[in-house]
Design a protein that fits this description.
With 288 residues, this protein is of the alpha+beta class. The protein has helices at residues 17-46, 60-142, 172-183, 201-210, 220-223; strands at residues 188-189, 198-199, 228-230, 240-243, 251-257, 260-266, 270-275, 283-286.
């Protein structure tokens, strides 16, 4: 027996042959796999990629679907735009309606105010007309004409054109004419007017001389030749003045003394008293 037989061996126990074979097989398999993979990788790296990916072809149906989708999108956008326009129009209409309402209220207020003012003026005018009517009635009843309706001259108390004072003749006929004329001062001028509150020139003269029971023609042309012609330097109160030619006069008035005459002048003035120097007459006739 060996002298070291009793000492345990330091070598590792031997593995069985089967285990060693198994491990060798596994290792060989792994190495084979790696070798194959490496060869494959080298081969792939060496060869270029020739595979082509084909995109789907755009068919007619697909084109139609895309077009329909685009149309639908546009319709939606148009709808939103139309709605926005409608809302904007509604807001604008509401603002305009409010503005119109305020304007209508102001207009109604102004019309009501104007109506009230017109009514006040109408009442004042009616009151004034009533007062004038009363005055005319008193003149008509209290002024009795003296003498006939002849073409003679008026009384010696009449004034010539050179007189500076305005006097009323003592003759009842002339006094009635002048009083009536003065009562109409302020009346309106209306073409063809014959009273009682609006006149034209010849209508006023005709009405005035009716107070003396003298019936004059209606027109200024006929009135300019109705009496005896007199010089403008020898006028007397009550003489009829005319502008234009005798027989073709376009305007008439009545001399009231003091270088003044009374006439229905025009629509802007109405019945007024004016200075003869400002608008000299063409001629005159005397009927009283």
């Amino acid at each position: 027996m060996s002298h070291t037989a009793h000492i345990p061996s330091h070598r590792k126990p031997r593995r069985s042959a089967s285990k060693m074979a198994l491990r060798a097989g596994v290792a060989g398999g792994v190495l084979s796999t790696l070798a194959v993979a490496g060869a494959a990788g080298t081969a792939n790296a060496a060869e270029p990629v020739t595979e082509t990916i084909e995109l789907p072809t755009l068919t007619a149906d697909l084109s139609a679907q895309i077009a329909q989708s685009a149309d639908a999108t546009q319709q939606t956008a148009d709808s939103y735009e139309a709605r926005a326009q409608q809302e904007a129009a509604a807001v604008k209409a509401a603002k305009q309606a409010a503005k119109d309402q305020k304007a209508a209220e102001k207009k109604a207020e102004a019309e009501q105010k104007a109506k009230a003012e017109a009514e006040a003026k109408r009442k004042a005018a009616a009151k004034e007309r009533a007062a004038r009517t009363t005055e005319r009635t008193q003149l008509s009843t209290s002024s009795a004409p003296s003498g006939g309706a002849t073409g003679g001259s008026s009384s010696s108390s009449g004034s010539s054109a050179s007189d500076n004072s305005v006097s009323t003749p003592s003759s009842g006929s002339v006094s009635a004419v002048i009083s009536f004329l003065r009562a109409q001062v302020g009346d309106a001028y209306v073409m063809g007017g014959t009273g009682p509150n609006s006149w034209d020139c010849s209508g006023l003269v005709q009405a005035a001389f009716k107070q003396a029971n003298i019936n004059l023609p209606r027109t200024s042309q006929a009135q300019s030749t109705a009496g005896t012609p007199v010089s403008l330097s020898n006028l007397q109160v009550g003489d009829i003045l005319y502008w234009g030619g005798a027989g073709s006069a376009y305007h008439v008035g009545v001399y009231i003394g003091g270088g003044q005459y009374l006439d229905a002048a025009n629509p802007s003035k109405g019945v007024v008293i004016q200075d003869l120097s400002g608008y000299p007459a063409s001629g005159a006739v005397r009927v009283l």
